[in-house]
Amino acid sequence: MNYSKQREIIYKTLADNVVHPSAEYIYEILKKADSKISLATVYRNLNKMASCGHIKKIEGLEDRAHFDHNTFEHYHFICEKCGKIYDIAKEVAPDIIKKTQDKTGFTINSHDIVFHGICLECKKEER
Amino acid sequence: MNYSKQREIIYKTLADNVVHPSAEYIYEILKKADSKISLATVYRNLNKMASCGHIKKIEGLEDRAHFDHNTFEHYHFICEKCGKIYDIAKEVAPDIIKKTQDKTGFTINSHDIVFHGICLECKKEER
DNA sequence: ATGTAAAGTGATAATTGTTATCAGTTTTGT
DNA sequence: ACAAAACTGATAACAATTATCACTTTACAT
User: Fold this and answer.
1) Does an H or E element contain B99, and which?
2) Contact B10, B3 (CB under 8 A)
């Protein structure tokens, strides 16, 4: 994989963002600064970085994919009210890979956990 | 929600199937028997049944959604080689909801776990 | 049993997120 | 500095899903 200026910008935009943006969202941010980038380039590079493990692709949240520069093993929570995505520590499912491999005999290469519910902020507002 | 003959047929087709079919797959099966059903009807009813908890919608597997008549809490594994979807027992992640709620203060309404890897059969073939 | 409002249907157009294409540009190693 | 490989922007194409709409079914009060 060669160096590319666009890929660097995309990665920085992803890393500097507290949220877990979609490709479209990154594209919107970049259009304001580097007004020449193409949406296809954003998709291409996010996928390329995801498949080489440099970033993480989060699927099964909404209808669109989201991306995460945090490649540490961790899970995600999406608030059904505000739509915000939060990180969940891996400790909530200890030894899950080993347990699953032992039980099934399958080889587990990756796993994802997605929680749905109401976040603290939205719970406060409800009262 | 009113009764509908189509919904009943769709549910039965889902329940009689060992696999975890997609909407398209159910549509194909039904076209052979009841040749009049519409793909839109299949989507409509699968989503309706999923959102009232009668069946389960599995997302984040491939690009399409799959459906499961087994509403018992359990997880899924998709084989990266043959594409087959397997059920995984909930015991691999004990007390995950309680742990996550305690740690975050969020209310968890649902959660999904998807494993990716190689199933036993495909592992045998590799050698 | 009948009338009517609500819910459901088939057919298909529209939408949406994503990927493919392709001519031109950038990067890389020699 | 040069050729091969990788990358890009612009946009067409694609695939899964949803919206639309005229019509049919269902439920239930009379």
Assistant:
1) helix B96-104
2) no
B105-108, long-range: CB < 8 A, 24+ apart = B105/A120, B105/A123, B106/A77, B106/A79, B106/A86, B106/A115, B106/A117, B106/A118, B106/A119, B106/A120, B106/A123, B107/A117, B107/A118, B107/A123, B108/A77, B108/A115, B108/A116, B108/A117
Q: What is the pLDDT of residues B76-99, one digit of tens each?
A: 999 999 999 999 999 999 999 999
Determine the Cα–Cα distance for residues A110 and B27; give it in Å rounded to an integer: 31
Q: Do A92 and B107 touch (CB under 8 A)?
A: no
pTM of full prediction above 0.70: yes
Chain mean position to CA B109 = 17
Residue numbers 32-91 of B with CB closer than 7 A to any atom of strand D: 39-40, 43, 47, 63-65
The nucleotide minimizing the C1' distance to residue A41's CA is: D8
